[in-house]
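Re: beginner question about structure tokens

> Can someone show what the tokenized structure looks like for a real chain? I only ever see the sequence side.

Sure, here's an example I had lying around. Input first:
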Amino acid sequence: MSDQDRYIPGVPCWVDTTNPDPESAVAFYGSLFGWEFEDVMPPGSPARYHVARIRGGDVAAVGSPPEGAPPRAVWNTYVWVTDADETAAKVRAAGGNVLMEPDDVGDAGRMAVFADPAGAAFRVWQPREHRGAAVVNEHGSLNFNDLSTRDLDGARAFYGSVFGWETLAVGGGLMWALPAYGEFLEQRSPGLRENIAQLGAPERFEEVVASLSSISDDQPDVSAHWGVTFGVDDADVIAARAAELGGRVIVPPFDAPWVRMTIIADPQGATFTASKFVPENKGLAESPSAANGA
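And the corresponding structure tokens:
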């Protein structure tokens, strides 16, 4: 692990979207978030993988679907691991499925695709040259990864066994916490715990690595899934701009604890949340309309 790494094993570290028309997705997200792209695939390759950057720092990527995969647009969450093969064994032992066996991605790293027992797909990343997202928690960059499921108890057992995650009650909702992460962040940024406490955040908030929500019974067509949240300077502006660019606003901007957020689908149907940090909203009750939309 590099001294500059912002991740430890068990922390989501990267997101990308598979889109049937990656060039159109590049145009959409480039205009929406101001991302600059580089296709990192070798010349002549039929596949595309456009890495998005802000100020030269990697933030996300847009890729084409793997050969033979259904032409479905979706955002993917990657969790940093020390050993992808060892994690595959843990997934199987915990009742999950290995959708793609661990495989090398050139010199960048080693990855695998899994599904938890409820069917929510996620990926793991064993890093080599690629060290995850270099820019996070600012406008146009990854802010959060979110699991929606109908089986909270099953999720607790599975992700606790695979990654050592624990659930933490925050503002009427649930978060995933990794105890070692808080200490890691404090060492990286001395005084972080004190600063978080002064904001009025709940105890152990510095250990949070993702969120967890229950899919309501009035959404029978929604399956268990992982979603992504990007930080933005203005959720209302982003929603309006996404619509102008051919996207669809699934949930209009609304206020929730600590944030103002909106849920958007890109023109090919990949959904994501855009969230503005609003400390004044910390005392609000969670809106039920948002919990399962991404």
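Each token stands for a local structural state, so reading them left to right follows the chain. The chain has two domains: 12-127, 141-281.
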